[in-house]
Amino acid sequence: MKLAAIDIGSNAARLQISTVLHNDNLVSFKRVEYVRFPLRLGHDVFNFGALTPESEVRTTKLLQAYKLLMELHEVEDYMACATSAMREASNGQEVAKRIGDLTGIKINIIDGRREAELINDVVVHALDDRQYLHIDVGGGSTELNVYVNREKINSKSFKIGSVRLLEGKEHKGAWRKIEDWVEENIDSSQEVTAVGTGGNISKLFNLASKISETETTLSEIERIRDFIAGFSQEDRINKLRLNADRADVIVPAADIYTSVMKWAGASKIIVPDLGLKDGIIQLVYAHLSKQKRVL
């Protein structure tokens, strides 16, 4: 059985198709297809407050392509979720409905709390009983979650993200709000380890020297950030071989990760290969399994 997730973010839209694997009573998901396309909806919304007709056309075409891929893979069920850019757009609901009518794909516009919950549902499996600060940086928002003993103690969504910073549209006082929240919710008497999710931290992690297969240090992320910042946009693309839509946002994103880690006193960061798309697939499987039990 194959399931799919569509994640429509402020910077890019992603399609992930996974096969459901059963090993005795253990269920796992194996990725068989992953496509990412840089829609940059955040550019419209953070500058103009609404999605432009051009972005609507591009999104419609992309979802039509994603639908064909899902049909070729014979996907049994899927879910499409949109985050910061579409939920903040003044015409987000209307655009989502029109795209749905044309493509047959219903777009669920989820709030920051729901977005964090879906990511947390998969990230928690990578944790143990220590104190963790989960940092998820998207194009338009940053979600922070504190875990102790694999239980979420608190969480908060902030309107600051890589594309929003690039456009100079972060909300006034956003940095201070994050710093205050971290100070209030991290137990400084205990060691804290950061957990990073999102495309930018994954790319930074790939370039960094590592402590283990999934862990590196704050100083190493800072070193890679400064290394990339020393190149022009053109050289980041041609010499560092970064995608154009990654080359301009990776430094602002790194600034969020490193700032939050410093405020929390976290010297290490774990970067599991997980994100919203994985949480969506897990949710789709749960819904499908429940329906089958009812039948």
Automatic annotation (TrEMBL):
Pfam families recorded: Ppx-GppA (PF02541)
Gene Ontology MF: a single term: pyrophosphatase activity
Domain spans labelled Ppx/GppA phosphatase N-terminal: 29-281
PANTHER family named among the record's database cross-references: EXOPOLYPHOSPHATASE, RETROGRADE REGULATION PROTEIN 2
CDD domains: ASKHA_NBD_PPX_GppA (cd24006)
Name of the protein in question: Phosphatase
Source species taxonomy: Bacteria, Pseudomonadati, Bacteroidota, Cytophagia, Cytophagales
Chain ranges passing through the membrane: none
